[in-house]
Amino acid sequence: MPGLVTKVTDTIGAAGVMIRAGLVPFPRLDRGLKSIAAVDKYGPFAGPVHAHAESGYDAVAIIDERGPITYAELERQSNALVRAWQADGITSDSVMGAMCRNHRGLVLTMLAAAKNGTKLVLMNTGFARPQLVDVAAREKVVAFVYDDEFADIADALPDDVVVYRSWPEGTAADGSTAATLDEAIAGRTTSSVPAPEKNGGFVLLTSGTTGTPKGAPRGHTSPLASAQFLDRVPLRREQTMMMAAPAFHGTGVSQFALALALGQTVVMHRKFDPENTIKLVAQYKCDSLVVVPTMLTRIIDLGPEVLSQYDTSNLKIIFSAGSSLSPDLCKRVTASFGYVLYNLYGSTEVAVATVATPEDLTIAPGTAGRAPVTCHVELFDENNKKITTPHTIGRIFVASGLSFEGYTDGRDKERIDGLLSTGDVGHFDANGLLFVDGRDDDMIVSGGENVYPLEVENLLADREDVLEAAVIGVEDADFGHRLRAFVVVAHGADQNSEELKDHVRSNLARYKVPREIVFIDELPRNATGKLLRRVLIEMEISEG
Q1: What are the CA-CA distances from residue 344 to residues 52, 248, 340 (Å)?
Q2: 70-218: which CATH architecture?
Q3: Which of 153, 160, 185, 441 is spaced 20 to 30 A from 489 at the CA atom?
Q4: 187 — alpha (psi -120 to 50), left (phi > 0) or beta?
Q5: Domain boundaries along the sequence of the chain
Q6: 46-54 and 104-116 helices cross at what angle (nearest 10)?
Protein backbone atom coordinates (compact mmCIF):
# COMPACT_ATOMS: atom_id res chain seq x y z
CA MET A 1 0.00 0.00 0.00
CA PRO A 2 1.48 3.42 -0.91
CA GLY A 3 2.72 5.23 2.21
CA LEU A 4 2.25 8.85 3.25
CA VAL A 5 5.32 10.12 1.38
CA THR A 6 4.18 8.38 -1.79
CA LYS A 7 0.69 9.84 -1.45
CA VAL A 8 2.08 13.37 -1.05
CA THR A 9 4.38 12.86 -4.04
CA ASP A 10 1.46 11.48 -6.07
CA THR A 11 -0.70 14.51 -5.22
CA ILE A 12 1.99 17.01 -6.21
CA GLY A 13 2.71 15.09 -9.41
CA ALA A 14 -0.98 14.85 -10.30
CA ALA A 15 -1.52 18.58 -9.78
CA GLY A 16 1.41 19.34 -12.08
CA VAL A 17 0.00 17.05 -14.78
CA MET A 18 -3.42 18.71 -14.58
CA ILE A 19 -1.94 22.22 -14.89
CA ARG A 20 0.17 21.12 -17.88
CA ALA A 21 -2.90 19.64 -19.62
CA GLY A 22 -4.97 22.77 -18.98
CA LEU A 23 -7.43 21.00 -16.72
CA VAL A 24 -6.50 23.54 -14.05
CA PRO A 25 -6.47 26.80 -16.08
CA PHE A 26 -3.35 28.37 -14.54
CA PRO A 27 -3.02 31.28 -13.88
CA ARG A 28 -6.85 31.64 -13.91
CA LEU A 29 -7.08 29.65 -10.69
CA ASP A 30 -10.49 31.18 -9.95
CA ARG A 31 -11.92 29.15 -12.82
CA GLY A 32 -10.13 26.08 -11.59
CA LEU A 33 -11.58 26.50 -8.10
CA LYS A 34 -15.09 26.96 -9.53
CA SER A 35 -14.65 23.78 -11.57
CA ILE A 36 -13.48 21.83 -8.51
CA ALA A 37 -16.48 23.17 -6.56
CA ALA A 38 -18.81 22.05 -9.36
CA VAL A 39 -17.25 18.58 -9.38
CA ASP A 40 -17.71 18.39 -5.61
CA LYS A 41 -21.34 19.40 -6.08
CA TYR A 42 -22.38 17.21 -9.02
CA GLY A 43 -19.54 14.73 -9.52
CA PRO A 44 -16.76 14.39 -12.16
CA PHE A 45 -19.16 13.96 -15.09
CA ALA A 46 -21.80 16.64 -14.59
CA GLY A 47 -19.61 19.06 -12.63
CA PRO A 48 -17.48 20.24 -15.57
CA VAL A 49 -20.52 20.78 -17.80
CA HIS A 50 -22.08 22.94 -15.09
CA ALA A 51 -18.83 24.88 -14.61
CA HIS A 52 -18.43 25.51 -18.36
CA ALA A 53 -22.01 26.75 -18.67
CA GLU A 54 -21.72 29.01 -15.59
CA SER A 55 -18.50 30.57 -16.92
CA GLY A 56 -20.12 31.39 -20.28
CA TYR A 57 -18.12 28.77 -22.22
CA ASP A 58 -20.61 27.79 -24.90
CA ALA A 59 -18.60 25.67 -27.31
CA VAL A 60 -20.06 22.61 -29.00
CA ALA A 61 -19.93 19.67 -26.58
CA ILE A 62 -21.42 16.85 -28.66
CA ILE A 63 -21.86 16.18 -32.35
CA ASP A 64 -24.06 13.17 -33.04
CA GLU A 65 -26.44 12.13 -35.81
CA ARG A 66 -28.87 14.86 -34.71
CA GLY A 67 -26.19 17.53 -35.10
CA PRO A 68 -24.31 19.69 -32.57
CA ILE A 69 -25.30 20.53 -29.00
CA THR A 70 -23.42 23.04 -26.84
CA TYR A 71 -22.30 22.85 -23.22
CA ALA A 72 -24.95 25.42 -22.28
CA GLU A 73 -27.67 23.35 -23.98
CA LEU A 74 -26.48 20.18 -22.22
CA GLU A 75 -26.62 22.02 -18.91
CA ARG A 76 -30.14 23.34 -19.46
CA GLN A 77 -31.57 20.10 -20.84
CA SER A 78 -30.03 17.94 -18.11
CA ASN A 79 -31.46 20.31 -15.44
CA ALA A 80 -34.90 19.94 -17.01
CA LEU A 81 -34.51 16.16 -17.14
CA VAL A 82 -33.68 16.06 -13.42
CA ARG A 83 -36.94 17.85 -12.68
CA ALA A 84 -38.89 15.48 -14.94
CA TRP A 85 -37.48 12.47 -13.12
CA GLN A 86 -38.14 13.98 -9.73
CA ALA A 87 -41.76 14.52 -10.76
CA ASP A 88 -41.90 10.80 -11.56
CA GLY A 89 -40.60 9.90 -8.09
CA ILE A 90 -36.96 9.21 -9.01
CA THR A 91 -34.69 10.32 -6.15
CA SER A 92 -31.12 9.97 -4.95
CA ASP A 93 -32.20 6.66 -3.39
CA SER A 94 -33.29 5.31 -6.78
CA VAL A 95 -31.28 3.19 -9.18
CA MET A 96 -31.65 3.76 -12.93
CA GLY A 97 -30.52 1.64 -15.84
CA ALA A 98 -29.57 2.78 -19.35
CA MET A 99 -29.24 0.76 -22.54
CA CYS A 100 -28.16 3.25 -25.15
CA ARG A 101 -25.81 3.67 -28.07
CA ASN A 102 -23.41 6.61 -28.35
CA HIS A 103 -25.53 9.75 -28.64
CA ARG A 104 -26.75 12.80 -26.71
CA GLY A 105 -29.57 10.84 -25.05
CA LEU A 106 -27.06 8.72 -23.15
CA VAL A 107 -25.01 11.81 -22.25
CA LEU A 108 -28.07 13.65 -20.92
CA THR A 109 -29.02 10.56 -18.92
CA MET A 110 -25.54 10.42 -17.38
CA LEU A 111 -25.61 14.13 -16.53
CA ALA A 112 -29.10 14.11 -15.06
CA ALA A 113 -28.42 11.00 -12.99
CA ALA A 114 -25.32 12.65 -11.51
CA LYS A 115 -27.20 15.87 -10.72
CA ASN A 116 -30.03 13.91 -9.10
CA GLY A 117 -27.63 11.75 -7.08
CA THR A 118 -29.10 8.68 -8.76
CA LYS A 119 -26.97 5.59 -9.28
CA LEU A 120 -26.86 4.71 -13.00
CA VAL A 121 -26.25 1.15 -14.22
CA LEU A 122 -24.75 1.23 -17.72
CA MET A 123 -26.11 -1.83 -19.51
CA ASN A 124 -24.23 -3.54 -22.30
CA THR A 125 -26.03 -3.03 -25.62
CA GLY A 126 -25.31 -6.67 -26.41
CA PHE A 127 -27.51 -7.94 -23.56
CA ALA A 128 -30.35 -10.35 -24.25
CA ARG A 129 -33.60 -10.22 -22.25
CA PRO A 130 -32.51 -12.67 -19.51
CA GLN A 131 -29.25 -10.79 -18.80
CA LEU A 132 -31.05 -7.45 -18.59
CA VAL A 133 -33.70 -8.85 -16.26
CA ASP A 134 -31.11 -10.47 -13.98
CA VAL A 135 -28.90 -7.37 -13.73
CA ALA A 136 -31.87 -5.03 -13.25
CA ALA A 137 -33.24 -7.22 -10.43
CA ARG A 138 -29.87 -7.52 -8.68
CA GLU A 139 -29.16 -3.76 -8.89
CA LYS A 140 -32.77 -2.89 -7.91
CA VAL A 141 -33.39 -0.77 -11.02
CA VAL A 142 -36.62 1.26 -10.73
CA ALA A 143 -36.28 3.38 -13.90
CA PHE A 144 -34.85 2.60 -17.30
CA VAL A 145 -33.70 4.61 -20.33
CA TYR A 146 -33.41 2.83 -23.67
CA ASP A 147 -33.07 3.33 -27.41
CA ASP A 148 -36.01 2.17 -29.50
CA GLU A 149 -33.95 -0.62 -31.08
CA PHE A 150 -33.85 -2.25 -27.62
CA ALA A 151 -37.61 -1.96 -27.00
CA ASP A 152 -38.18 -5.72 -27.21
CA ILE A 153 -35.47 -6.28 -24.60
CA ALA A 154 -36.67 -3.48 -22.32
CA ASP A 155 -40.16 -4.96 -22.52
CA ALA A 156 -38.94 -7.83 -20.33
CA LEU A 157 -38.61 -5.50 -17.32
CA PRO A 158 -41.35 -5.49 -14.63
CA ASP A 159 -44.32 -3.22 -15.32
CA ASP A 160 -43.55 -0.97 -12.35
CA VAL A 161 -40.20 0.14 -13.82
CA VAL A 162 -40.50 3.72 -15.13
CA VAL A 163 -39.19 3.84 -18.71
CA TYR A 164 -37.98 6.59 -21.06
CA ARG A 165 -37.00 6.44 -24.74
CA SER A 166 -33.58 7.96 -25.45
CA TRP A 167 -33.42 7.52 -29.25
CA PRO A 168 -36.90 7.32 -30.75
CA GLU A 169 -37.35 5.88 -34.21
CA GLY A 170 -40.85 6.84 -35.29
CA THR A 171 -43.76 5.39 -33.36
CA ALA A 172 -42.86 3.49 -30.21
CA ALA A 173 -42.80 -0.28 -30.55
CA ASP A 174 -45.91 -2.15 -29.42
CA GLY A 175 -47.73 1.10 -28.84
CA SER A 176 -45.63 1.99 -25.78
CA THR A 177 -46.65 5.13 -23.93
CA ALA A 178 -43.11 5.68 -22.63
CA ALA A 179 -42.06 9.30 -22.93
CA THR A 180 -39.04 10.27 -24.97
CA LEU A 181 -36.37 12.31 -23.20
CA ASP A 182 -37.36 15.30 -25.34
CA GLU A 183 -40.97 14.92 -24.21
CA ALA A 184 -39.92 14.58 -20.57
CA ILE A 185 -37.83 17.75 -20.81
CA ALA A 186 -40.45 19.86 -22.58
CA GLY A 187 -41.84 22.68 -20.43
CA ARG A 188 -39.54 21.99 -17.45
CA THR A 189 -37.48 24.67 -15.72
CA THR A 190 -33.91 24.69 -17.01
CA SER A 191 -32.15 26.61 -14.22
CA SER A 192 -29.53 24.97 -11.99
CA VAL A 193 -30.72 22.23 -9.66
CA PRO A 194 -29.65 21.94 -6.01
CA ALA A 195 -26.82 19.58 -5.15
CA PRO A 196 -28.12 16.06 -4.49
CA GLU A 197 -28.35 14.76 -0.92
CA LYS A 198 -25.75 12.16 -1.83
CA ASN A 199 -23.54 11.49 -4.81
CA GLY A 200 -24.74 9.16 -7.53
CA GLY A 201 -22.17 7.42 -9.66
CA PHE A 202 -22.02 4.72 -12.30
CA VAL A 203 -22.19 0.97 -12.04
CA LEU A 204 -20.02 -0.52 -14.78
CA LEU A 205 -20.60 -4.15 -15.67
CA THR A 206 -17.83 -6.66 -16.08
CA SER A 207 -17.64 -8.25 -19.50
CA GLY A 208 -17.66 -11.81 -18.31
CA THR A 209 -18.09 -14.57 -20.87
CA THR A 210 -20.58 -16.59 -18.87
CA GLY A 211 -23.35 -15.90 -16.40
CA THR A 212 -24.66 -12.54 -15.27
CA PRO A 213 -22.05 -9.75 -15.43
CA LYS A 214 -20.95 -8.43 -12.04
CA GLY A 215 -21.44 -4.77 -11.18
CA ALA A 216 -18.43 -2.60 -10.35
CA PRO A 217 -19.54 0.72 -8.83
CA ARG A 218 -17.76 3.98 -9.65
CA GLY A 219 -18.48 6.55 -6.97
CA HIS A 220 -17.26 10.06 -6.27
CA THR A 221 -13.54 10.27 -7.08
CA SER A 222 -10.89 12.87 -6.50
CA PRO A 223 -10.40 15.42 -9.32
CA LEU A 224 -6.72 14.38 -9.22
CA ALA A 225 -7.70 10.99 -10.69
CA SER A 226 -7.85 12.62 -14.14
CA ALA A 227 -4.07 12.92 -14.03
CA GLN A 228 -3.76 9.16 -14.47
CA PHE A 229 -4.77 9.54 -18.10
CA LEU A 230 -3.29 12.98 -18.76
CA ASP A 231 0.14 12.01 -17.44
CA ARG A 232 0.92 9.80 -20.44
CA VAL A 233 -1.73 10.83 -23.01
CA PRO A 234 -1.52 14.40 -24.42
CA LEU A 235 -5.20 15.30 -24.25
CA ARG A 236 -5.56 19.08 -24.05
CA ARG A 237 -8.24 21.77 -23.76
CA GLU A 238 -10.62 22.46 -26.61
CA GLN A 239 -9.54 19.55 -28.80
CA THR A 240 -11.97 17.36 -30.75
CA MET A 241 -12.42 13.70 -29.81
CA MET A 242 -13.96 10.92 -31.90
CA MET A 243 -15.65 8.56 -29.43
CA ALA A 244 -15.92 5.25 -31.29
CA ALA A 245 -15.70 3.04 -28.17
CA PRO A 246 -19.07 2.34 -26.53
CA ALA A 247 -19.78 4.93 -23.84
CA PHE A 248 -21.22 2.27 -21.49
CA HIS A 249 -17.72 0.76 -21.32
CA GLY A 250 -15.14 1.94 -18.78
CA THR A 251 -12.94 3.21 -21.63
CA GLY A 252 -15.73 5.34 -23.03
CA VAL A 253 -16.86 6.69 -19.65
CA SER A 254 -13.35 7.71 -18.58
CA GLN A 255 -12.38 9.41 -21.81
CA PHE A 256 -15.73 11.11 -22.18
CA ALA A 257 -15.47 12.54 -18.67
CA LEU A 258 -11.98 13.85 -19.49
CA ALA A 259 -13.18 15.39 -22.74
CA LEU A 260 -15.97 17.25 -20.93
CA ALA A 261 -13.58 18.45 -18.22
CA LEU A 262 -11.22 19.81 -20.91
CA GLY A 263 -14.05 21.54 -22.78
CA GLN A 264 -13.55 19.37 -25.85
CA THR A 265 -15.99 18.60 -28.63
CA VAL A 266 -16.91 14.90 -28.76
CA VAL A 267 -18.07 13.36 -32.03
CA MET A 268 -20.34 10.34 -31.60
CA HIS A 269 -22.11 7.87 -33.87
CA ARG A 270 -24.54 5.22 -32.72
CA LYS A 271 -23.09 2.22 -34.52
CA PHE A 272 -19.46 1.61 -35.33
CA ASP A 273 -18.44 1.43 -38.95
CA PRO A 274 -14.68 1.52 -39.63
CA GLU A 275 -14.73 3.69 -42.75
CA ASN A 276 -17.38 6.05 -41.39
CA THR A 277 -15.30 6.48 -38.24
CA ILE A 278 -12.26 7.59 -40.25
CA LYS A 279 -14.51 9.77 -42.39
CA LEU A 280 -15.77 11.56 -39.26
CA VAL A 281 -12.21 11.91 -37.93
CA ALA A 282 -11.27 13.66 -41.18
CA GLN A 283 -14.49 15.72 -41.43
CA TYR A 284 -14.21 17.21 -37.94
CA LYS A 285 -10.38 17.29 -37.84
CA CYS A 286 -10.36 15.19 -34.70
CA ASP A 287 -7.31 15.33 -32.47
CA SER A 288 -8.05 11.99 -30.81
CA LEU A 289 -9.82 8.72 -31.57
CA VAL A 290 -11.02 6.42 -28.76
CA VAL A 291 -11.44 2.76 -29.69
CA VAL A 292 -11.32 -0.78 -28.41
CA PRO A 293 -8.79 -3.08 -30.14
CA THR A 294 -11.28 -4.89 -32.37
CA MET A 295 -12.40 -1.54 -33.77
CA LEU A 296 -8.80 -0.61 -34.41
CA THR A 297 -8.21 -3.90 -36.23
CA ARG A 298 -11.21 -3.28 -38.50
CA ILE A 299 -9.99 0.25 -39.27
CA ILE A 300 -6.50 -0.97 -40.20
CA ASP A 301 -7.99 -3.80 -42.27
CA LEU A 302 -9.58 -1.16 -44.54
CA GLY A 303 -6.15 -1.00 -46.15
CA PRO A 304 -4.11 1.93 -47.48
CA GLU A 305 -6.31 2.48 -50.55
CA VAL A 306 -9.32 3.34 -48.38
CA LEU A 307 -7.46 5.07 -45.55
CA SER A 308 -5.56 7.34 -47.95
CA GLN A 309 -8.87 8.85 -49.11
CA TYR A 310 -9.28 10.66 -45.78
CA ASP A 311 -7.11 13.40 -44.32
CA THR A 312 -6.33 12.32 -40.76
CA SER A 313 -3.24 14.50 -40.39
CA ASN A 314 -4.76 16.29 -37.39
CA LEU A 315 -4.98 13.02 -35.46
CA LYS A 316 -2.52 13.14 -32.54
CA ILE A 317 -3.89 10.33 -30.37
CA ILE A 318 -5.39 6.92 -31.03
CA PHE A 319 -6.40 5.76 -27.56
CA SER A 320 -7.06 2.04 -27.30
CA ALA A 321 -8.19 0.10 -24.22
CA GLY A 322 -10.32 -2.87 -23.28
CA SER A 323 -8.02 -5.75 -24.24
CA SER A 324 -4.40 -6.28 -25.21
CA LEU A 325 -2.89 -5.11 -28.49
CA SER A 326 -0.85 -7.59 -30.45
CA PRO A 327 2.63 -6.48 -31.53
CA ASP A 328 1.53 -6.88 -35.16
CA LEU A 329 -1.42 -4.51 -34.71
CA CYS A 330 0.82 -1.93 -33.03
CA LYS A 331 3.16 -1.99 -36.04
CA ARG A 332 0.29 -1.76 -38.55
CA VAL A 333 -1.29 1.22 -36.77
CA THR A 334 2.02 3.08 -36.71
CA ALA A 335 2.57 2.35 -40.41
CA SER A 336 -0.90 3.74 -41.23
CA PHE A 337 -1.19 6.74 -38.88
CA GLY A 338 2.29 7.48 -37.55
CA TYR A 339 3.39 7.62 -33.91
CA VAL A 340 -0.01 8.31 -32.34
CA LEU A 341 -1.00 5.04 -30.62
CA TYR A 342 -1.58 4.96 -26.85
CA ASN A 343 -2.59 1.69 -25.23
CA LEU A 344 -4.17 1.66 -21.77
CA TYR A 345 -4.04 -1.46 -19.65
CA GLY A 346 -6.57 -1.75 -16.86
CA SER A 347 -9.89 -3.36 -16.03
CA THR A 348 -13.39 -2.51 -14.89
CA GLU A 349 -12.26 -3.17 -11.31
CA VAL A 350 -8.82 -1.51 -11.10
CA ALA A 351 -9.49 1.19 -13.73
CA VAL A 352 -6.03 2.44 -14.82
CA ALA A 353 -2.92 0.30 -14.40
CA THR A 354 -0.45 1.32 -17.12
CA VAL A 355 -0.32 3.28 -20.36
CA ALA A 356 1.96 2.56 -23.31
CA THR A 357 3.01 5.61 -25.33
CA PRO A 358 4.05 5.59 -29.00
CA GLU A 359 7.67 5.61 -27.82
CA ASP A 360 7.06 2.54 -25.64
CA LEU A 361 5.31 0.71 -28.47
CA THR A 362 8.12 1.51 -30.88
CA ILE A 363 10.70 0.03 -28.52
CA ALA A 364 8.53 -2.93 -27.53
CA PRO A 365 5.39 -3.48 -29.68
CA GLY A 366 2.63 -5.03 -27.59
CA THR A 367 3.83 -3.67 -24.24
CA ALA A 368 1.29 -2.39 -21.72
CA GLY A 369 3.70 0.44 -20.84
CA ARG A 370 4.27 2.06 -17.45
CA ALA A 371 2.11 3.13 -14.54
CA PRO A 372 1.11 6.83 -14.74
CA VAL A 373 1.16 9.20 -11.78
CA THR A 374 -0.85 7.98 -8.72
CA CYS A 375 -0.95 4.41 -10.08
CA HIS A 376 1.17 1.58 -8.66
CA VAL A 377 1.70 -1.85 -10.22
CA GLU A 378 3.32 -4.84 -8.51
CA LEU A 379 3.80 -8.51 -9.39
CA PHE A 380 3.34 -11.33 -6.89
CA ASP A 381 4.09 -15.04 -7.09
CA GLU A 382 1.81 -17.90 -6.04
CA ASN A 383 2.91 -17.44 -2.42
CA ASN A 384 2.04 -13.72 -2.47
CA LYS A 385 5.73 -12.79 -2.47
CA LYS A 386 6.64 -9.65 -4.43
CA ILE A 387 8.56 -10.25 -7.67
CA THR A 388 11.33 -7.75 -8.39
CA THR A 389 13.40 -9.44 -11.11
CA PRO A 390 12.79 -8.68 -14.81
CA HIS A 391 11.28 -11.28 -17.15
CA THR A 392 9.70 -13.21 -14.26
CA ILE A 393 5.98 -13.88 -14.69
CA GLY A 394 3.74 -13.04 -11.78
CA ARG A 395 0.19 -12.03 -10.91
CA ILE A 396 -0.53 -8.35 -11.60
CA PHE A 397 -1.84 -6.18 -8.73
CA VAL A 398 -2.70 -2.48 -8.94
CA ALA A 399 -3.33 0.42 -6.57
CA SER A 400 -5.27 3.27 -8.12
CA GLY A 401 -7.50 6.00 -6.79
CA LEU A 402 -10.10 4.81 -9.27
CA SER A 403 -10.08 1.16 -8.14
CA PHE A 404 -13.43 -0.14 -6.98
CA GLU A 405 -14.26 -1.19 -3.42
CA GLY A 406 -16.07 -4.42 -4.22
CA TYR A 407 -18.83 -5.71 -6.50
CA THR A 408 -22.42 -4.69 -5.96
CA ASP A 409 -23.29 -8.25 -4.93
CA GLY A 410 -20.84 -8.09 -2.01
CA ARG A 411 -18.02 -10.10 -3.58
CA ASP A 412 -14.51 -8.76 -4.06
CA LYS A 413 -11.26 -9.53 -5.87
CA GLU A 414 -8.07 -10.62 -4.13
CA ARG A 415 -6.04 -7.86 -2.45
CA ILE A 416 -2.43 -7.82 -1.24
CA ASP A 417 -1.06 -4.88 0.77
CA GLY A 418 -3.81 -2.61 -0.51
CA LEU A 419 -3.29 -3.56 -4.16
CA LEU A 420 -6.10 -5.15 -6.18
CA SER A 421 -5.74 -8.20 -8.41
CA THR A 422 -6.34 -7.70 -12.12
CA GLY A 423 -6.75 -11.41 -12.72
CA ASP A 424 -3.89 -11.20 -15.23
CA VAL A 425 -0.32 -12.45 -15.20
CA GLY A 426 2.61 -10.58 -16.69
CA HIS A 427 6.22 -9.51 -16.42
CA PHE A 428 8.42 -6.43 -16.48
CA ASP A 429 11.31 -6.20 -18.92
CA ALA A 430 14.72 -4.74 -18.05
CA ASN A 431 13.44 -1.24 -18.93
CA GLY A 432 10.51 -1.44 -16.53
CA LEU A 433 7.89 -1.89 -19.25
CA LEU A 434 4.98 -4.17 -18.34
CA PHE A 435 3.90 -7.04 -20.58
CA VAL A 436 0.61 -8.86 -20.00
CA ASP A 437 1.09 -12.56 -20.65
CA GLY A 438 -2.54 -13.62 -20.25
CA ARG A 439 -5.34 -14.27 -17.80
CA ASP A 440 -4.39 -16.11 -14.66
CA ASP A 441 -7.25 -18.54 -15.28
CA ASP A 442 -6.41 -18.92 -19.00
CA MET A 443 -3.16 -20.73 -18.25
CA ILE A 444 -3.05 -24.13 -19.95
CA VAL A 445 -1.09 -26.98 -18.34
CA SER A 446 -0.02 -29.33 -21.13
CA GLY A 447 2.21 -32.27 -20.24
CA GLY A 448 3.17 -30.54 -16.99
CA GLU A 449 4.25 -27.32 -18.76
CA ASN A 450 2.52 -23.96 -18.29
CA VAL A 451 1.39 -22.20 -21.46
CA TYR A 452 -0.22 -18.76 -21.65
CA PRO A 453 -2.25 -18.51 -24.88
CA LEU A 454 -1.40 -14.87 -25.58
CA GLU A 455 2.22 -15.65 -26.43
CA VAL A 456 1.19 -18.14 -29.12
CA GLU A 457 -1.64 -15.89 -30.35
CA ASN A 458 0.67 -12.90 -30.82
CA LEU A 459 3.24 -15.02 -32.67
CA LEU A 460 0.60 -16.27 -35.11
CA ALA A 461 -1.02 -12.85 -35.56
CA ASP A 462 2.36 -11.33 -36.39
CA ARG A 463 2.32 -13.21 -39.73
CA GLU A 464 1.05 -11.28 -42.76
CA ASP A 465 -1.25 -14.14 -43.75
CA VAL A 466 -3.00 -14.21 -40.33
CA LEU A 467 -5.50 -11.55 -39.24
CA GLU A 468 -6.07 -12.86 -35.71
CA ALA A 469 -5.73 -16.01 -33.65
CA ALA A 470 -6.99 -17.50 -30.40
CA VAL A 471 -5.59 -20.46 -28.47
CA ILE A 472 -7.46 -22.62 -25.95
CA GLY A 473 -6.76 -25.79 -24.01
CA VAL A 474 -8.86 -28.89 -24.65
CA GLU A 475 -8.82 -32.04 -22.56
CA ASP A 476 -6.33 -34.70 -23.58
CA ALA A 477 -5.93 -38.19 -22.12
CA ASP A 478 -2.13 -38.17 -22.40
CA PHE A 479 -1.17 -34.55 -21.66
CA GLY A 480 -4.05 -33.34 -19.48
CA HIS A 481 -4.69 -30.60 -22.03
CA ARG A 482 -3.54 -29.96 -25.58
CA LEU A 483 -3.47 -26.68 -27.46
CA ARG A 484 -6.04 -25.85 -30.13
CA ALA A 485 -5.62 -22.69 -32.19
CA PHE A 486 -8.40 -20.87 -34.03
CA VAL A 487 -7.08 -18.78 -36.90
CA VAL A 488 -8.61 -16.13 -39.17
CA VAL A 489 -6.45 -15.84 -42.28
CA ALA A 490 -6.03 -12.74 -44.42
CA HIS A 491 -8.11 -12.43 -47.58
CA GLY A 492 -6.72 -14.73 -50.25
CA ALA A 493 -4.23 -16.46 -47.93
CA ASP A 494 -3.86 -20.24 -47.84
CA GLN A 495 -5.19 -22.21 -44.88
CA ASN A 496 -2.03 -24.18 -44.21
CA SER A 497 -2.09 -25.60 -40.71
CA GLU A 498 1.27 -27.38 -40.98
CA GLU A 499 3.04 -24.19 -42.03
CA LEU A 500 1.57 -22.36 -39.02
CA LYS A 501 2.61 -25.15 -36.66
CA ASP A 502 6.14 -25.05 -38.08
CA HIS A 503 6.19 -21.30 -37.50
CA VAL A 504 5.35 -21.77 -33.81
CA ARG A 505 7.81 -24.65 -33.54
CA SER A 506 10.59 -22.46 -34.96
CA ASN A 507 10.02 -19.68 -32.43
CA LEU A 508 8.71 -21.26 -29.23
CA ALA A 509 9.16 -24.37 -27.14
CA ARG A 510 7.67 -27.56 -28.59
CA TYR A 511 5.02 -27.82 -25.88
CA LYS A 512 3.62 -24.48 -27.08
CA VAL A 513 2.88 -25.79 -30.59
CA PRO A 514 -0.89 -26.20 -31.13
CA ARG A 515 -1.87 -29.80 -31.80
CA GLU A 516 -4.78 -28.60 -33.93
CA ILE A 517 -5.43 -25.48 -35.98
CA VAL A 518 -9.02 -24.64 -36.86
CA PHE A 519 -9.70 -22.01 -39.52
CA ILE A 520 -12.77 -19.81 -38.94
CA ASP A 521 -14.18 -16.65 -40.55
CA GLU A 522 -14.05 -14.54 -37.37
CA LEU A 523 -13.41 -14.93 -33.65
CA PRO A 524 -16.39 -14.67 -31.30
CA ARG A 525 -16.34 -11.44 -29.29
CA ASN A 526 -18.71 -9.46 -27.10
CA ALA A 527 -19.88 -5.89 -27.70
CA THR A 528 -16.66 -4.41 -26.27
CA GLY A 529 -14.40 -6.67 -28.33
CA LYS A 530 -13.46 -9.12 -25.60
CA LEU A 531 -12.67 -12.59 -26.92
CA LEU A 532 -15.25 -15.18 -25.87
CA ARG A 533 -13.00 -18.15 -25.17
CA ARG A 534 -15.90 -20.11 -23.71
CA VAL A 535 -17.61 -20.12 -27.12
CA LEU A 536 -14.45 -21.58 -28.66
CA ILE A 537 -14.15 -24.18 -25.91
CA GLU A 538 -17.74 -25.29 -26.46
CA MET A 539 -17.47 -25.26 -30.27
CA GLU A 540 -17.89 -28.70 -31.82
CA ILE A 541 -14.95 -29.53 -34.06
CA SER A 542 -15.31 -32.33 -36.60
CA GLU A 543 -12.45 -34.80 -36.60
CA GLY A 544 -10.25 -34.89 -39.65
Answers
A1: 28, 17, 13
A2: 3-Layer(aba) Sandwich (3.40)
A3: 441
A4: left
A5: 1-42+221-377+402-407, 70-218, 442-538
A6: 90
Least confident residue range of 276-285, 313-322, 323-332: 323-332
**Spatial CA neighbour of 112 closest among 89, 139, 90:** 90
- If pLDDT is split at 50, 70 and 90, which confidence band does 128 have? confident
Strand positions, DSSP E, 31-176: 60-64, 67-70, 95-99, 119-122, 143-147, 162-167
Length of the chain: 544
**402, pLDDT greater than 70:** no
- CATH class of this structure's domain 1-42+221-377+402-407: alpha beta
Q: CB count, 10 Å around CB of 352?
A: 28
Q: Is the pLDDT of residue 410 over 70?
A: no
Quote the CA–CA distance of 252 and 348 in Å, as a whole number: 12
478-514 per-position pLDDT tens digit = 778 889 999 999 988 999 999 999 999 988 888 899 9
Domains 70-218 and 442-538 share a fold: no
Flag whether pLDDT at 33 surpasses 80.
no
**How far is 281 from 454, CA to CA, in rounded Å?**
31
The whole-number pLDDT of residue 105 equals 97
Q: Is 292 helix (H, G, I), strand (E, B) or coil?
A: coil
Distance CA 359, CA 302 (A): 25
The span from the first CA to the last CA of the chain, in angstroms, equals: 54
How far apart, in whole angstroms, are the C-alpha atoms of residue 57 and residue 76? 13
Question: What is the rounded distance in angstroms from the CA atom of residue 340 to the CA atom of residue 357?
Answer: 8
